[in-house]
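Q: Hi! First time asking for a complex rather than a single chain. Here are the components, and I think there are two in total. Is that enough to go on?
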Amino acid sequence: MSATMAEELREAIAAAGSVVAVGGGTHSGIGGPVTGAVEVRAPVGIVDVQPSDMTVTVRAGTTFAELDAALATHGQECPLDPDEPTATIGGTIAAGLSGRRRLGLGPMRDYLLEVRFVTADGREIRGGGPTVKNVTGYDIPRLFVGSLGTLGVITQVILRTRPRSRASQWFRATSSAAEVRRALFSPTTILGGPGTVSVLLEGDPGDLRSEAATAGLVPSDPPQPLTGTHRGRISIDPSLIDALAANLATIAGLDRVAEYGVGTVHVATEDPEGLGAARQEAEAIGGWLLRIAGAPMIDPFGAGFPAVALQRRIRTVLDPTGKLSPGRVPITEPDDGTQ
Amino acid sequence: MCFPQSTADVACAVQVANRFGVPFVARGSGTGLAGGATPLDDALVIVTTRMNRVLEIDADARRAWVEPGVLNLDLTRAVAHLGLHYAPDPSSQQACSIGGNVGTNAGGPHCLAAGVTSAHVLAVEVVLPDGTVEILGGLGPDAPGLDLRGTFVGSEGTMGIATRICVRLMPDPPEIRTLLADFTAIDDAAAAVSAVIAAGVVPAAMEMMDAQATRAVEDFVHAGLPRDADAVLLVEVSGLIDGVTHDAAMIDEICRAHGARTVRVAVDAAERALLWKARKSAFGAVARIAPDYYLHDAVVPRTKLVEVIRQVYEISARYQLIAMNVFHAGDGNLHPLLVFDGREPGIWDRVHAAGDEILRVCIDAGGVLSGEHGIGLEKRDAMPLFFTADDLDVQARLRDAFDPDGLANPDKILPRGSRCGEVGAIPAGAWV
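A: Yes, that's all I need. Here is the structure of the assembled complex.
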């Protein structure tokens, strides 16, 4: 970012009573509504692609689509995989929702090497570093993945990249998701919905053929992401997915698809009550449901935050007056006197 | 010093330390190289070696709960019969503990493809600096709110003490191929490393030993390494057969194109084990040259390896020290070893001065202070080389959030005065 742009952004943030960073608006249903805050936007553009280091430096306002296209010219990718390619990199990281290739390629947090951000008082900070391996100081980048704009305004990041796979193919399974998982060495994705199991394999073309044959997979089109006015994302111990799915099946009008081996279960419905019912089922066996879109009447997060006193202290030491994205996350509410 | 046997014991020790305002330091096997577990002043040392049980193994879910004192290699041995392993494999894996690995966010040769410790820890039960117990992270993929697990890993005992750890286990690869490429110029070997990565091949491990290290190791282990090589590359690819065959062929071709004299492929598991023994014995082999060594740990962008290694040799020659390089080339993680005889008068000043210069060269090349050993005491005062005062202030504040009273391993990682008292004043009534 140019010195002037950085200066302007810093000044705008320092001067504002409350601030919210706005990206592509594709994750705006996550968390509570932020009202009355000055909107700021992160700068745009790809700063540096280093194919031989497998890293890329990108400004946070850049869309995922633009980043993906730039990396594709080098035969690489960064599998943040937001649902909407118009999502910005900053927004995608702040939302922290790993894409559906997480089983094989790892969670989003494993791809963020360095984060630059502007603090509530207008200072530009660097956390992490440019190399693929780094333990210099605290792991600030991981803290920012999923921080929902409550710790600072992300301006620029360095991401780890990976070679694009030589072959990639979706399949339909003829056995259960659990059996498929046991039969395959390193599937990229195993999605299980009512009566269907879809598998994505990536790698060497020959390996894909033999793995597919071993596990009884039949080539298919990619499964479509769930649609629905009210959507949520359950996080649960992956060994409980089948138990949860059986309970979710009793909720009328609820679509679901589970990421086996990961523990993310996507749910969608046209009935806002259905999302609340899904949350009850998730919480009953130790999971939790994050509201992704719709259902304004239900709490955005539901389950209590673990180590909430600690979470609140982290928020407070970085943003003492609670001016960053006020209202988005429960712990950003003015202190109610409890710890 | 105390030797707790349970989470409750650790919590009790931390509570007692709190009551008397005494700092405390968590310590695992004590193999750390940055002094993170070294107590200063009158600190209470809480040693986790007696908490060494593997509590639960879930082969289907590919995870295990372990106590912090479990040794890294013992964990892999405990799950080997299930066709699983724990991926991070520091060279000290026979002696270092999982708790210590979590503290330093330890790496190892096979972290090139598999990732370092942080990518393999699902949840940590932690005794926080105030003596309360929390589970950070969880068995589900995402916990609500901030990633406290990710923040804790690598915090070197300054954010609390891990008392139970749930680690991810990886399935053993069906196919492994280990190659040893032999170069007459180390620059060519380093260029080959970059070329392999640029060609879209990510080996499971890609390690380099320079001429000095190769000779020392060969004389010690007799693995058939070329004693006249200027550098050798040990590269391993693993996974499914076709992918492994493809990658091994690419690596062979790239190494030869960059001047490799020979590329030897381990014919069986025994030969592979021997080659790895050679790599992991490097630090022991050094004793054949001189009685003492100072091992550095820094990371530079892979593309800067040639330039930085050349400067390491130049600096050590200027200080009349022997430099050996044995390192994780694939991720640019340098481990220059300065070899010397500590009885020589004035030698330690030269060793430290050379070390400082090497660190500066790495930073100037766009690198970082540490790749896997941590900052601890050793590099604490070098932190301003890499971070601004504002960067360090934010880190100090984060630490305050975990440890408001500053009792957990004080004076490690961050230099004194990191907190800028004058900026971002906290309003009255705010919870800090």
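A: The radius of gyration of chain A is 21 Å. Let me know if you'd like any chain examined more closely.
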